[in-house]
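Chains adopt folds. We examine one example:
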Amino acid sequence: MEKIKIISIIILVSFVFMQTQLLAQTPETKQIESAIRSGNSTELAKYFNSNIQLKINSKNNVYSKMQANKIINNFFVQHKPVSYQIKSEKQREDTKVILGNINTGTVTFRIIYRIVPSQGKSLITYMEIEAI
């Protein structure tokens, strides 16, 4: 009986680990990273939730997907990324939070965004960009 419990626990832990890895490696997360790295607001906005909380430096509000796209586009026009590096990824249940740095050559910005599953894909519900 004890052996069955141990095997059951191993199977459960393996299943949870595989689920976490599957969410962490979604095609959406790779596309989001690519869009940030290249400064492509149109591609990035494909992964915005219908409403997204967006904070850029001191401006903080909830915007529609279209409004957020325009704001992010203006940001990328003013601050073209030279490089993008992920510093940390945290995952709790089905929510993933990513912290990274965008280097523009003159200024480095910290970017934090939250990805949650919605409508069958991973969508950004929160994004913060701040000069460091």
In short: Residues 18-23 have pLDDT under 50 and may be disordered. Residues 46 and 123 are 8 Å apart (CA to CA).
